[in-house]
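Task 17 of the worksheet. Students: predict the tertiary structure of the chain below and write it out as structure tokens. Keep your answer in the requested format; marks are given for formatting as well as content.
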Amino acid sequence: MIRNEYLQGIGVLSAICLFFLSWPILNYPDHVLSPVGLLQSNTLTRLTENPPWVNPYLGDVVYVIQPWLLYNRDSLQAGQLPLWNPYNGNGAPHLANFQSAIFSVFTLPFYVLDFKAAVLVASFLALLGHGFFAFAFLKQLRLHQAAALAGAVSYLFGGYHVIWLGWLPLVGSGVALPAALFFSQAIFNRLEAAEEKEKKGLFWLLAGFSGSLLVGLLAGHPETFYAALVLTAAYVAFGLIRRLRHLGWSRQAVVKTLVTGGQFTAAALIVPLIAGAQLLPFLEYLSHSMGNPTGKSQVALPLSILPLLVFPNLLGNPSGPYHPILQTQDALWNFPESNSLYLGAITLLLAIASLPLARRSWPARFFGLAALLWLVYVFDLFSTRAWFKLIPGASIVLPIRTYDIWLFSASCSAALFLDHALHSRAASPKWAMAVMGAGTALLASAWLGAVTLLRQFANTALQNETAFVEHSLTHLTTVSVSFVLGMTLTAALFLISSRRWKGVVASALIALVFYQGGYVFKPYNPIAREELFYPRPAALQRLQRDVGDATLVIVGQDTIPPNVNLVYRLRMLTNYDGFWGRAQRRLYRVLFDAPPSALIPSGRADPRALQMFGVEFVATIGAENSEIANSPYFELLWQEGQVRLYRFTKSLTRYFTVDDFVPAADQAQAWQIARSADFDPARFVLLMADEAPALSGGAGQAGPARPAQVIVDRGDYVQLRATRDRPGYLVLAMTHYPGWKAKVNGEMQPVLRANYTFSAIPLPAGESVIEFYYDPDSFKTGVALSVLGLGLAGALVVSQGLRRPTSRPS
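Model answer:
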């Protein structure tokens, strides 16, 4: 019976997920699930002059996630683990940034399927993972089948999952929450079993608990995983207290509870051990990366977005061109951040109605409290944020990445109330009236808030004002009608005694819950014609051919977005948002006059900066750049349409040697020298005084820099040849980062920090063969820990399999 219920649940949820993805599935032959149409706004990747509207908030998917997935696939198929990305920001750690998700379960489809199929399979698995484990958890709480399905559908199609579906690391990491809670509750249920034989299988449930956390951790979004970990830890702690109360407060009960707590702890601690190959490089990366450069880390959500909990598309939906981009009022005031906490008005009503159940239902008590505490935290009510920061890690995690706590808690609360309604045997008019009253109050307050919100933005300039107004009115009407219908059906459950009719009404409620969640947001993630998937127009192909493996900078706003260049294997100076090294981003922004944005395009082409960053080619798009066109340092190679490619004739190339150095006492002084026009990178290298061996004469005796001969350059391994008549330095315009090692004529040499953010190697006189390679100790140590963790897990599995059941006397 139980197995049939689980099979029915996974069947229903699979069908709903397939329906949600039906548009890309039906258009599979010539379309791909991707917002890659956004690239039609850039000249170099444009195939059509009148591209269709594409959701502008999905840039991260096009600029970062999908290029990384393609790079992961191509690297592994070539037999290389992509530890390093040499194509962005003069090189950046790739595996270590975590969100590249190389070891994620949800990335595996991209290694064995073509991209079109893989993105559908991965999206389906991520959604189904959320839905099935939420359903399974609610069944462990012994809820009615329909109530468990309603809660699962509500959570599955919550705003955080649908809006961020293209960001697979984020959605995948969240699966850890329902999965870990499912195994946690299954463990508690086994421990409460009356018969000793029913307590068997705890080992495998603990293994499932560990596996859930491991899948979430490796999925690639640490903040979402952190939220899952916090709620899981709270739930386990709550369960242990309940177990202690159940056993009594005797010494034996305390020992049993501590043993159970120790089992949970051990199962959790083996997870970072197994994930060591990913986790240790990431911890190293955190100390060198930009982290969160936008300053939004601890900004509270504005209370003015509360009406969007009922009317998510009130201010338009960015899948249509009538949506106003409301980012001028508040850094967080945009569709994804404002609607990620949406789970449907019907679910919200059911969750509110569950609050009275807290007096007699411990799950209602736990999830009601969790939901309320999360609201206090994320909106910073009563200025309590400082108290929440006492939770380890809370001070560095964005509150807007903890939405899963709210979605899961509220969905479970809603399911608990629906279960209460389905199990009411006699007519309960008081409960029916309470539901109608609460629903009416919720709808009235939501309308009042919606009108206030529309008035707030009445003077906002809109491109399609008429379409926007019509959309808002239609949305208000359809959501209100569906809400009233759901409210009426919920109240009817308390007046119906027939189990068959209760089932029919509950099925209708599940459909309405999906309508208000998945169906409302269904158009948010667009499809694109296959030919638009990272296209290669003629000018771009010519650029690839002529630039080759050299470093390119495109001056101006119209460029190739950072990390998109990874698809085309073009080495560019830009990186995306917080994935820069701190020193790298700081120097680049000043020397290239780059504006403060996630894309950070180059604003100018200063010759000294180009030399320091190893640039050989400069491209411009649009009107002729007079500063470049009139400079003797730039040779126009060709012009195709609005695209011009110049050779920088004063380039030092990516690898060059110099005779002497300029010392800096510390990084602060190095920053001042590097940005100063008096520093000449073509004659000197800037080194830290305490690192630089005095190989040459005094400053001022240096001759011009000379390029090194490249023998091999494959990104994470470079072999060069340099001939010098006296000792000097090889300067590499590559990010100085832990893990890079150097050999000169077979002997290890130190890798020095050079020119504030790059690298240098001391060279002797004569001919030298230099090997420069990325071999991070953090990864090697992490691999050793992973092997140790897997060995321990394997030994436990084997010992469990060898254990023989003991016979009992009759």
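Marker's comment: The first helix runs from residue 2 to 20. The mean pLDDT is 90.
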